[in-house]
Structure formats: structure tokens, C-alpha cells
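ingest -> fold -> write
write: protein_1
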Amino acid sequence: MKKRLLITNAVIVFLALLLMLIVSSTIIYKENYNVHKTQLKNYLSLTVSSFDGENFKRVENIVNNIDGNVRLTIIYKDGTVVLDTFKDEITENHLTRPEITDLLNVNVRYSATEKKQMMYIADFKKDYYIRLAISMGNVNEALKVYILIGIGTLVIIELLSLFLSFYFNKRSLNP
């Protein structure tokens, strides 16, 4: 009977800790997402204020100096890519991209060019769309570390709990 109670308690503790890990991971993801979203908006504001319609390389240098992980794309009003910090040549028209049709709003989507989830935002100035993007991998890195540490801690606590429960149960049966 005591063994069953110990196992039931261990399962309840495990489920409570697992629930706490899930809830806290969700909160951390949302906070991290919002931090990167705000950061991307601030980068866009700085980039747009620095752009005069002709200083493409200067703006590229500004973005690279701010954060080398940020992708800058400058697109002419007809959808033609004029500058992209991604090194491959981009030839397709960009006018229908969600971040272009929904200016100043952050969009998350899969980038066929970079082959990963990206967070995008864009604005329009002097006949050009200025688009910035960061990898969602940057957003998710802290969460991965937290979850790994949480799972490790969960396993250690559960094993320690079971060991101590059985140890003290066995000791109380054999004084």
C-alpha cells in the first residue's frame, strides 16, 4: 500500500514539474519572441532613417554593424531586389511578400532562400521597400537551452524523489 502511494506521489510530482516546464517554456518563448520583434522594429526604424534613396552600401554597413545576423533587402517599388545581404542573387519579384503587403508588421514565415523560419518586417521610403529579417533560430536558442536544463532537472528530481521515498519507506519497515 505504501509502495503504491509512493509511486502515485512520484507520478503527481513528475506531472506537476512537467506542467511547470511547459508553462514556463511557453512564457519564455513569447518573451523572447517579443524581444526579437521589438529589436527588429528598432533596427528597421534606424535603417529607414539612415536611408536617403541612394546610399545602399552605407545602409548595408549600418545594418551589418548593428547586428551581423540581420538580413537586409532593399527592393525597388516594382518589386525588383536592388540589394540583399544574402549572397545569392535574388531574381523573383518581391511585391507579394507578406511583409511588403503588410508594412511595419512583423511576419514569420519560411524563407526558401535561407531554408529556415525567418522573422520579417519592412517599410517604404523614397521608392524603395526596406526589409529586415532575422532567423527564428536566434529566437529559439534560449528556449532550447532552457528546455534541456529543465528536462535534466526534472529527471534528477524525480529519480532523487523515488530513491529517497523507497529508502525511507524501507527504513521505516525495518527499524
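write: protein_2
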Amino acid sequence: MNDMMSVFAKGKAVVPFITAGDPDAASTVKYILAMAEGGADMIVVSVPFSDPTAESPAAQEASLRALSGGMTPDGVLEILRTVRKKCDIPVLLTSYMNPVFFYGYDAFFSALGSIGAAFYTPDLPYEERGEISDIAAVHGVPVLTAVASSSGSRIPAIAAAASGFVLIASPSDDPTGDDLAAAAKEVKKYTSVPVVADLGALGLDRASAAAPFDGVVTSYPVRLIASGATPSALGEYISELKKKINS
């Protein structure tokens, strides 16, 4: 996981997003393994939170379902440990800072380091990244950089400090991609690392929206899970999306 550049060695990366514990821990493991088998290059696994304001509506609903089922940060880490025993796909764990703070920074990043996962949080500004970056580094955990299309004059500094890849974030469940593409173009002026866009619930009919980016995060699996889709259905979606964005 420390060599995230390898994720982009075979074309545009497909990075599905799911919420841990939606609908339960065992199902989450099955979904991750099926998407890895389908060709996912990395998996974003979200720690459910009671007030996920930076997430899309579909992801917010998934978070609340997972919490209703009793999912905890310890439960999320156990899911990742189970996955790691069966699969070596890179994992990016995303969480709001509140659960991490109460878990304890050192204990949390020690656990992530032992699993081999990277970390991203939507609610710690770039200027305050030092709160966790040094502790994460001690445990070998990469902390991903993100910019929003509204980051404006802050983009040069954020991009220049990035490692692994830069995530262009969107709170929308169905962004057009136009504003994200403009942000990606600006980011690439200041860094050589890959640029990955959060294109929300990216359906196969919108695969062309991936063109300006080195990879895409898609939360469409969250919708499939909510509809009762099987793990194999998620794997098939990933396989088809990967073909389409790299054709």
C-alpha cells in the first residue's frame, strides 16, 4: 500500500467506495473480495459516522444503516484484517476525525499500519494535517491529500505537498464531472502524482466522465448494496466499468 503509484500502472484506476457494516460485517468482506476479483484497483472503506455531512446522500444512508447494525471502529478494523488474510488489494480507509480522536491516534494508526491501509479524512483541513501526519508516518500509514473544486488559491500548496495520489472530492451523489475536471487540470500544474476524482454513483452509461482523470472513485456499489445486490453483481459492475473507462 505504501507504493500507491503502482495502482495506476495499468491504466485508469477503478476505486469503489463502500461503507463498512452495510448491511453487516460479513457482507462487507464478501463485497470487497468480489470487487477485488472484478478488477478493482483499490477499495475505499468508510467508517460509519452519525453525522456524515461531507458524504453523498446515498453514502449518508449507508452510514446510518451500518451504525444501526452496531458497526464500530473496532469492527471496521476487524473487517480489514479479515480482508487482508484473503486479498492484498490496496485499501484506503476514510473516516471523520471524531471516531479516530476517541479511538486514540496512536492506537488507530498502529492498527492501520499493521493492516497495510492508507487513510483519508474529509474534515481535517490541509493546514491542520500535522495533527495526524506525523503519527501516521510513524506507523507507515500514507495520509491522502484531497482538494475540492472550490479550493481555489489553496490548490497549489495542497497539490505540491501530495504523495500517492490527489483526490478531487465531491459531496454530490451524481456530479457532472465538469468542475472536477477543471480542478484536476489545475492540480496537475503543481504535482506529478496521479489525480483521482470522486465521481459519485458512476453508472456504466457515464463512464466517459472518467476521461480527464487517472482514476475514479465510484460510490455506485453503495446503491447496489442498498438494493440488495449480490457480491457477484458488484464484481460484474466493477469489471464492466474498468473496461469502459479504459477502452
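write: annotation protein_2
The longest strand covers residues 13-19.
The mean pLDDT is 90.
pipeline exit 0
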